[in-house]
């Protein structure tokens, strides 16, 4: 009888120990699928600050298991590591792969936000992508003429080439964008989509006019005004006044009185406050202003 008790006790201890090992193993990814093991190991490496090891593990996981249900997580994590390392083109490719290959992923919105940030960073960097071209400055050229001939803005050329002033010299190589930018404003979603040749660039939050006063249709940008003056009921409100509701930038439509502008309000941007214009936070409208030249098409839908 005593032997049976002892044997039973030992068996119980072995069983408990075995269960404990299995639980711990599952927590550590030991008995999980190989791709999950790689992802778990990469997560540990990230927490320890070993970015090289994390990158190596994630690259192995994605290359070996491209169709795994864990791969979307791996793609996003690796894209974040690449962005941290300023490997922007590689990071962009991973985001696009995730969105194309895993359209139902719960990480889709986060990935789209990251892709927008990377796209803007690439636009404003000296990196020449296949969507860009190089212009060699000739004698007598000005930045204004170069920007106009390439259907872009002086601010864009300066920023993407790290120019601190308007001085250029013959033989200088300048990055200039190819393709046409366009804008779609969705009033019901309260979002502004920026594209180039139909390809996603970035999605911004906006506020349409109150009482559905923002007009629908297709318009063109006909003027660009930094630090605009606001004319209110016969009064002239200067750009630096806290009562100037236009914020720091104005992009006017070919429909008089309407356009895209910033805001001085501290309330959430998506509240409908304007009299019909499209309102953005100042940092967003300043970014858009740098990219968008006169003639850009703006489509507004409900």
Structural features, described:
With 302 residues, the protein is of the alpha+beta class. It folds into three domains: 26-123, Serine Threonine Protein Phosphatase 5, Tetratricopeptide repeat, CATH 1.25.40.10; 132-177, LysM domain (Membrane-bound Lytic Murein Transglycosylase D, Chain A, Roll); 181-301, L,D-transpeptidase catalytic domain-like. It is built from nine helices and twelve strands. The longest helix is centred in the N-terminal third of the chain and has 27 residues, at 2-28. The protein starts with a helix and ends with a strand.
What is the strand and helix layout of this fold?
Layout: H1 2-28, H2 34-47, H3 51-64, H4 71-84, H5 88-101, H6 108-123, E1 132-136, H7 143-149, H8 154-160, E2 173-177, E3 181-186, E4 191-196, E5 199-205, E6 217-226, E7 230-232, E8 235-237, E9 249-253, E10 259-261, E11 278-279, H9 282-291, E12 297-301
Parallel strand pairs: 3-12, 10-11
Antiparallel strand pairs: 1-2, 3-4, 4-5, 6-9, 6-12, 7-8, 9-10
Helix pairs in contact: 2-3, 3-4, 4-5, 5-6, 7-8
């Amino acid at each position: 009888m005593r032997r049976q008790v002892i044997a039973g006790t030992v068996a119980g201890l072995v069983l408990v120990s075995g269960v404990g090992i299995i639980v711990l193993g599952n927590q550590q990814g030991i008995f999980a699928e190989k791709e999950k093991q790689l992802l778990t190991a990469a997560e540990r490496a990230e927490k320890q600050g070993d970015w090289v090891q994390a990158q190596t593990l994630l690259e192995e996981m994605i290359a070996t298991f491209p169709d795994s249900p864990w791969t979307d997580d791996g793609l996003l994590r690796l894209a974040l590591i690449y962005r941290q390392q300023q490997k922007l083109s590689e990071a962009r490719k991973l985001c696009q792969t995730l969105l194309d290959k895993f359209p139902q992923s719960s990480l889709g919105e986060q990935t789209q936000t990251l892709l927008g940030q990377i796209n803007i960073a690439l636009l404003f960097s000296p990196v020449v992508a296949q969507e860009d071209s190089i212009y060699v400055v000739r004698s007598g050229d000005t930045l204004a003429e170069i920007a106009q001939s390439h259907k872009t803005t002086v601010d864009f050329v300066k920023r993407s080439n790290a120019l601190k002033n308007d001085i250029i010299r013959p033989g200088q190589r300048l990055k200039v964008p190819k393709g046409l930018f366009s804008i779609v404003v969705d009033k019901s979603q309260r979002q502004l989509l920026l594209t180039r040749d139909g390809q996603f660039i970035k999605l911004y939050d906006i506020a349409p006019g109150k009482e559905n006063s923002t007009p629908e249709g297709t318009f063109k940008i006909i003027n660009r005004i930094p630090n605009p003056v606001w004319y209110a009921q016969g009064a002239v409100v200067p750009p630096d006044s806290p009562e100037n509701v236009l914020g720091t930038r104005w992009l006017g439509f070919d429909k008089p009185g309407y356009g895209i502008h910033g805001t001085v309000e501290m309330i959430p941007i998506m509240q409908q406050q304007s009299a019909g214009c499209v309102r953005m936070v100042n940092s967003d409208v300043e970014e858009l202003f740098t990219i968008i030249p006169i003639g850009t098409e703006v489509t507004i839908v409900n």
